[in-house]
Write a structure and sequence with these properties.
This protein has about 375 residues and is mainly beta. It has a single domain (about 20-375), classed as Distorted Sandwich (Beta-galactosidase, Chain A, domain 5), CATH 2.70.98. Helix content is about 5%, strand content about 40%. It contains three helices and 28 strands. It has helices spanning about 1-10, 90-95, 270-275; strands spanning about 15, 30-40, 40-50, 55-60, 65-70, 80, 100, 110, 115, 120, 130, 145-150, 155-165, 175-180, 185-195, 200, 205, 225, 230-235, 245, 260, 280-285, 290-295, 300-305, 310-315, 340-345, 360, 365-375. It has a nine-stranded antiparallel β-sheet with strand order 12-13-14-15-28-24-23-18-21, with no helix packed on it. It starts with a helix and ends with a strand. The protein binds beta-D-galactopyranose. The site of beta-D-galactopyranose (GAL) has 8 residues, from strand 25.
Length: about 375
């Protein structure tokens, strides 16, 4: 982070501190906005949001990402638990998805093909035979407009993006707004709002990677996971749903009670083999406030996930290989981060029996996901 500050103040010479947030005063929330570079002619900013508890998250309008979540352990020691990079260059050239908003269709669409009202659409294939995460030029890779919401109760930043008709092969001009609020309960509240002028499909998520030991501090196999899901979405060897919704009961996918990520990951179970570990959508029961939680007993950090969506993709970093050097020069090694990506199921446009991902003109897609941090 220091490197980014240095860049913004000396090379680009444009750092903005926004008032109304009482910078420097104790127990006050604040937002600081800094220019950190330009990408394809557009200015990229970093926003630092501090809540009244003194905890900090950082966001950027490159991919509307979360780049830093600094929260205390049970002894009050703060550490960043989200994957990201210390430099602008690192972020632009690094992993495309760390912390990013993913769309227009998060997860996979089989062979990059779907149809709406008899009209076929073809997407770029960027993941074997399939299209992944909105395609190579998806929303993770564009510079969003950003706005600090003045007079909000808590530090709040709104990112907006206009996705043109047929961008990455998807029909309809779409307006997307993603609002992040960092409240005093250490909750990142993410509000999504999307509209279109033509019938289209939409599956939007945030792709933050978490390690509650601190990002870059070993693997997440000891993290204790709960997912309130009685079923999950089995996939084929290219990670496309088979169409089945399988009960988790009696399988290594039963996280309805706490299990560590690593406990059953090496079992000889078809879906663990296809997924190379856990890389599956869980069908949320949506009966309780909290849909999923992750607890790391050494630090005592707990993260709870609350969503109004039908599913959550639990991915445990099976494709991380240590080649991405993140915050503090630490490599992100195999299974050193986990994602809980709230949203719809993969390939829903080709599965009429899955919850619909169609968005029509005149409708507004609204959704909220909360990542809540505490200790126990
Ligand atoms: C996840 C997906 C994984 C992998 C990852 C990005 O959402 O489930 O299979 O593609 O994104 O590396």
């Amino acid at each position: 982070m220091k490197q980014i500050r240095f860049l913004s103040l000396t090379l680009l010479g444009a750092a903005f501190i926004f008032g109304g947030c009482n910078q420097g005063a104790k127990n006050k929330s604040m937002i600081q906005k800094e220019l950190i570079g330009t990408y394809k002619g557009k200015e990229v900013y970093q926003m630092t949001l501090k809540n009244k508890s003194g905890n900090v998250i950082r966001l950027t309008n490159f991919g509307a990402r979360i780049t830093w979540i600094e929260v205390p352990d049970k002894n009050g020691a703060r550490e960043n638990v989200a994957f990201g990079f210390d430099t602008f260059d690192g972020m632009i050239k690094g992993d495309p998805y760390f912390g990013a908003v993913v769309g227009r269709y998060a997860n996979r669409i089989a062979r990059g093909k779907f149809s709406l009202d008899g009209v076929g659409y073809s997407l770029a294939l960027n993941n074997g035979p399939n299209s992944l995460h909105g395609g190579p030029g998806g929303w993770h890779s564009v510079v969003w407009e950003s706005e600090i919401i003045k007079n909000a109760e808590f530090p709040t930043v709104k990112f907006s993006y206009k996705s043109p008709d047929m961008e990455e092969g998807y029909p309809g001009n779409m307006n997307i707004e993603v609002t992040y609020t960092w409240n005093d309960k250490n909750e990142i509240v993410i509000d999504y709002a999307c509209t279109t002028d033509k019938k289209t499909v939409l599956n939007i998520t945030n792709h933050a990677y978490f390690n509650l030991h601190g990002a870059g501090n070993g693997n997440i196999l000891d993290h204790q996971l709960v997912i309130k899901a009685s079923g999950f979405v089995p996939v084929d060897s290219t990670l496309i749903p088979t169409g089945e919704i399988r009960p988790v009961a009696g399988t290594p996918f039963d996280f309805t009670t706490p299990h560590t990520v690593g406990e059953r990951i090496a079992e000889n179970y078809d879906q663990l083999i296809y997924g190379k570990g856990y890389d599956h959508t869980f069908v949320l029961d949506n009966k309780e406030e909290v849909d999923a939680s992750v607890y790391e007993p050494v630090s005592g950090r707990l993260m709870e996930v609350i969503s109004d969506q039908p599913g959550v993709q639990f991915y445990c970093g099976n494709f991380l290989d240590g080649s991405k050097i993140g915050h503090g020069g630490k490599p992100y090694i195999y299974r050193s981060g986990l994602c809980l990506e709230t949203g719809h199921f993969p390939d829903s446009p080709n599965h009429p029996d899955f919850p619909s991902t169609v968005l029509n003109p005149g409708e507004t897609f609204k959704s909220q996901t909360i990542y809540r941090f505490s200790v126990k």
